[in-house]
From TrEMBL:
Heterodimer of HisH and HisF. Keywords: Amino-acid biosynthesis, Cytoplasm, Histidine biosynthesis, Lyase. NCBIfam families: hisF. This is Imidazole glycerol phosphate synthase subunit HisF. The lineage of its organism: Bacteria, Bacillati, Bacillota, Bacilli, Bacillales.
């Protein structure tokens, strides 16, 4: 049986970990290298590092910081932000990342997914999708540039396209739930989980251990990602795992 994964996320801006609500109102959460080391020791299954302003500002992800973080980790490590070419992927993976996460660049150039998957293998390519519900149409649409630009892609269509092109995993963030701590958008997560054949990581909205259980049971997620509740010690990876085991969830 496949075990469910708990993944802390480091949203990094200007070399510091930050956290906001619905992608805005960012506040400082610490040093990425120190936090990475802490989560490794805490029992996290993986770590995600997102340079959240790289695509919007047209910069490259901070390769030096990635290398420093990778040096502290024994767990798989995914890096995203400003990765636009195969050469960018090579730099990030050489710096010590196990996987690369692409979002804006994947939508703008879907061929990049295939290029990366053919060169490194699908297991290295994570397509991150930022989704927002549109009340007028009753549909979820894909957003790019750190949640700033809406696309014409509906969420399930883009998830299927990304997998068809070689994505080995989908990192699915609900922009509506992000930072609210009221739970993951299980409806959105389930829609995508049922539509694709690769693992789906639920992201956005974690506020307590029960929310992870809901993401796995109702949302059918393979992994669940959280940031602020771990960074600000509102709960811990260990506590979440303890709770999930008590609920009978197969966890590492």
């Amino acid at each position: 049986m496949i075990t469910k994964r708990i993944i802390p996320c480091l949203d990094v801006k200007d070399g510091r970990v930050v956290k906001g609500i619905q992608f805005v109102e960012l506040r400082d959460a610490g040093d990425p290298v120190e936090l990475a080391k802490f989560y490794d020791e805490e029992g996290a299954d993986e770590l995600v590092f997102l340079d959240i302003s790289a695509s919007h500002e047209g910069r490259k992800t901070m390769v030096e910081v990635v290398a420093q973080v990778a040096a502290k980790l024994a767990i798989p490590f995914t890096v995203g932000g400003g990765i636009n070419t195969l050469e960018d992927m090579k730099k990030i993976l050489r710096a010590g990342a196990d996987k690369v996460s692409i979002n804006t660049s994947a939508v703008q150039n879907p061929g990049l997914i295939t290029e990366g998957a053919q060169f490194f293998g699908s297991q290295c390519i994570v397509v991150a999708i930022d989704a927002k519900y549109d009340k007028m149409t009753g549909k979820y649409f894909v957003y790019t540039h750190g949640g700033r630009k809406r696309t014409d892609w509906e969420i399930v269509d883009w998830a299927k396209e990304a997998v068809k092109r070689g994505a080995g995993e989908i990192l699915l963030t609900s922009m509506d739930a992000d930072g609210g701590k009221n739970g993951f958008d299980v409806k959105l997560t389930r829609m995508v989980s049922e539509a694709v054949t690769v693992p789906v990581i639920a992201s956005g909205g974690a506020g307590e251990a029960q929310h992870f259980y809901e993401a796995f049971q109702e949302g059918l997620a393979d992994a669940a990602l959280a940031a602020s509740i771990f960074h600000y010690k509102e709960t811990s990876v260990k506590e979440v795992k303890r709770y999930l085991r008590r609920q009978g969830v197969n966890i590492r």
